[in-house]
Amino acid sequence: MPADARPETPAIVAHRGWAARYPENSLAALEAAVWLGLRHLEFDVQLTADGVPVLFHDLDLKRITGRDGRIVDIPWPELARTPSGEPERLGTRFSGVRPARLDDAARLLSRHPGTTAFVEIKPESLEHFGRQAVWDACAPIIQRIPRPVVTSFDRGLLERVRDVCRIAWVLPEYTETALAEARKLSPQYLFCNLRRLPPEPAELPSGSWEWAIYEIRSPAQALELARRGVGLVETMDPAALQHRIGQTAD
User: Fold this and answer.
1) DSSP secondary-structure letter at 19?
2) Euclidean distance between CA atoms 72 and 54, whole angstroms
3) What distance in Å separates the CA atoms of residue 209 and residue 61, rounded to the nearest whole number?
4) Which residues of the chain carry a pLDDT beneath 50?
5) Residue 77 phi, psi dihedral angles, 5° rounding
6) What pTM did the predictor assign?
């Protein structure tokens, strides 16, 4: 990012929606993030046993639903009846929440055409079903999202889809080798976990991409990253970070 184009404060990406307050990847979490005025959302996509793209992060069902099993082994009609209110974390507050399909998220986002959606396709489903099968299931729905960015750790998937949509690569590691691969891929966005960045406050290398750093929890981290050339910071508590960045920047 050119020095004269750097924002004083980075834009906030709602990680799995407003996941600190609502069940992650739920329609409620996405809608609440939009209500906050955020223009960037991220959510995860897995495939069910019968090939339905759903908003779900883990391969295992336990953390989100409280039941045993794997997302890729359960058909959609059964999953649709399964509570997904994160009982261990949130108790019974969201006992009525059920998993959302990618189709449901597309309908929600069609009402908010100014919102950029980072649609992260998870590696577990890619490994289980194969890249082409997963993309064939997701592509017609993603094309109905107003501002989609296909996001993945899997470079092979992104190489397949970069000619038809914007892409974001999630760096598996911060190394010269990975950055060289990023330059070959030429994504519009490059995501990286904060813990993987070098500790020194040097400017991050530029390329075709805008940097997006995730697991941000403090305004000091967010503002320091903006000084290093980062345009987007991702957090599960967008309301708190939004408020604190505003306070710190004043």
Assistant:
1) T
2) 10
3) 34
4) 1-4, 249-250
5) -55, -35
6) 0.95
